[in-house]
Please model this.
Amino acid sequence: MKITQDFATTSDCYRAGRTITVKGLMLHSVGCNQPDPKVFARFWKNSDDVCCHGVLGADGTVIQTLPWNRRGWHCGGGANGTHIGVEMAEPSTIRYTGGASFVDNNPTATKKFVLGTYKTAVELFAYLCKMYGLNPLGDGVIVSHSEGYKRGIASGHADVEHIWNKYGLTMNQFRKDVKAAMNGGTVDTKPSGSTKTLYRVRKSWADSKSQIGAYSSLENAKKVCKDGYTVYDESGKAVYPKAESSSNGTYKVRVSIDGLNIRTGAGTEYPTTGKYTGKGIFTIVETKNGWGKLKSGGWICLDFAVKI
Model:
């Protein structure tokens, strides 16, 4: 990892000169197919807009755009006053189709890039945790933007899980890797270009936090798969048991974010319909592995909805 300072001296955040007592770190993903951190740094440096503290790339590059203890504007919520916010660049091989959904035009290259940014992020966050005496495993110390939203300290975004879930990367594992890196450990991102399949055992593909294991052998994954869990391949397709558990029953949920995708089936492996819920109250008529079928048609991820 190499950190280069290129402060956005014309940005509102830099000129305001407000400082924070650093209590945590928030990880973001830029949400567009631009792999070069320098592009973002140049934009913030030549703009009077708000900005985050830095942006990182897949090759170990980190560009610091604000002093770490300067109050940035990175999450649209209270964490601006407590957390350092860092963006991860995203590969040129993806194309966003709406909200957090994207088409992957080169899965091998995309995977290599995402794993590269993961490694850089682990090294940077270990460095910052040491600098500010933070425990990466402490509650709310290291969070993603989407976790911040669920905590009520950030606006409604899906990053970084929207791109990490596809590769079995989770914030829980990230925090553990940061802790290990602080103690001199290395980051093993394994598949960096390999096509080896890992079978993941979760309650649902969308619920990465429920994962109890990832196995190169399908038979080993089956052995630990218990009631309420499913074995998924790397694309998010359920491979065991074949029939996903589901339940009927009508109830209402409240969606509080914009741009929640509606899909043709219960999982991210199904294409989007091109429509979004928007904010409001919606009727669910069927539930399947963390997904709800709308009365009006299509499925939504219930991670972003609250039952009422």
Notes: The mean pLDDT is 87. The radius of gyration is 20 Å. The first strand starts at residue 2 and ends at 5.
